[in-house]
Each structure stands twice: as structure tokens, then as C-alpha cells.
Amino acid sequence: MEREELFKKVAEIISEKLNVPIEDIEEDSHLIEDLGADSLDAFDLVMVFEDEFGIKLEDDEIEKLMTVKDIVSLLQEKLKDRE
């Protein structure tokens, strides 16, 4: 999956789960500071990403997810490993 396509899908999920307009979501958007996520939101997002992309995210990986860019990069790496 191309990075742009992956970003678009991640942005759609974040928009839906956090009730944030999709046009407000950029790769540099910080989940907590810019998009208003809390720890429960973050947990929900991880569950959706795992289901949507058929991957497993480890706790130490999840702790490093601060921005949308972090999420896209990690998902891209996980999806590449599956190929």
C-alpha cells in the first residue's frame, strides 16, 4: 500500500473515531495536542488499526505513537513485513 493511500485510510479512521474533520488531520498532527485524543481514544485507535490492517502492534511500539506520521510509518513498516 502506498504511503499516501495509507495516510488517507488512517486519517479517515482518526476522523471517525475522534470526531475531527478529516481536513484538519495532517501527518504532523499530534494525537493528543492537535486532535484531542486521550488514552482511551488511543487504545480504540490501535484496536481499529489492528483489525483494519490485520496486524498486531506491540506495547512498546504503541507508546511511541505521538503523531499521525508515527502511525503511518509504523503501519507501513508492519505491512511491508507481511509481503
Cα distance, first to last residue?
10 Å
**In CATH terms, what is the architecture?**
Orthogonal Bundle
Largest sheet data: none
Count of beta strands:
0
**Uncertain segments of ≥5 residues (pLDDT<50)?**
none
- Secondary-structure element sequence? HHHH
**How many DSSP H or I helices?**
4
The CATH topology assignment is: Non-ribosomal Peptide Synthetase Peptidyl Carrier Protein, Chain A
Write a concise synopsis of the structure shown.
This is Acyl carrier protein. The protein has about 80 residues and is an all-alpha fold.
What topology emerges from the helices and strands here?
Layout (H helix, E strand, L loop, with lengths): L2 H16 L20 H15 L5 H4 L5 H15 L1
Helix pairs in contact: 1-2, 1-4
List keywords for this structure.
Non-ribosomal Peptide Synthetase Peptidyl Carrier Protein, Chain A; 83 residues; mainly alpha
Question: What does this molecule look like?
Answer:
This protein is mostly helical and 83 residues long. It has one domain: Orthogonal Bundle (Non-ribosomal Peptide Synthetase Peptidyl Carrier Protein, Chain A). 60% of the residues lie in helices and 0% in strands. It contains 4 helices and no strands. Helix 1 (3-18) crosses helix 2 (39-53) and helix 1 (3-18) crosses helix 4 (68-82).
